[in-house]
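Page 37, continued from 36.
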């Protein structure tokens, strides 16, 4: 693929709208959270979602061990979540220090528009990311809340 084609692909991929979520997981090894934007509903019956996680992220260990995760839908002003989770956390750091957080099945709930607790159905190799498909086993949220939606300038990087 030449550079011009790669640039065209990057621009078009960046036009795919996505939200911002805080993906959380917990197991005997601990609990953590991270920002995730590659999240999509994947099925109706049973209700399923997919989420992409860069290979080697600490949360991968917790999801693989527990076979669970939780997605927190971030509202229209994501600034606080960007600041808090944008730096990343190791498993020995408290990713939820200073937040109103509570353990739920599959992960941790924080303030936001909604929460989906999921059980992992499958994990797929997607190159530099893992794609987890989770069956939604619990949902809660603010019916009037509006999620944050954004477009990237370049679809080949965060």
């Amino acid at each position: 693929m030449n550079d011009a084609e790669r640039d065209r692909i990057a621009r078009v991929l960046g036009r795919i709208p996505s939200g911002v979520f805080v993906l959380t997981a917990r197991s005997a090894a601990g609990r953590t959270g991270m920002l995730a934007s590659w999240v999509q509903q994947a099925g109706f019956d049973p209700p399923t979602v997919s989420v992409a996680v860069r290979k080697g992220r600490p949360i991968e260990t917790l999801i693989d061990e527990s076979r669970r995760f939780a997605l927190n839908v971030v509202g229209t002003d994501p600034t606080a979540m960007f600041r808090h989770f944008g730096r990343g956390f190791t498993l020995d750091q408290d990713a939820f220090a200073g937040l109103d957080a509570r353990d739920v099945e599959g992960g941790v709930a924080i303030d936001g528009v909604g929460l989906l607790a999921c059980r992992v159905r499958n994990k797929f190799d997607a190159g530099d990311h893992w794609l987890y498909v989770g069956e939604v086993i619990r949902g809660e949220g603010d019916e009037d809340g509006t999620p944050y939606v954004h477009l990237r300038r370049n679809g080949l990087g965060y």
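The mean pLDDT is 93. Flag for discussion at group meeting. DSSP finds three helices and eleven strands in the chain.
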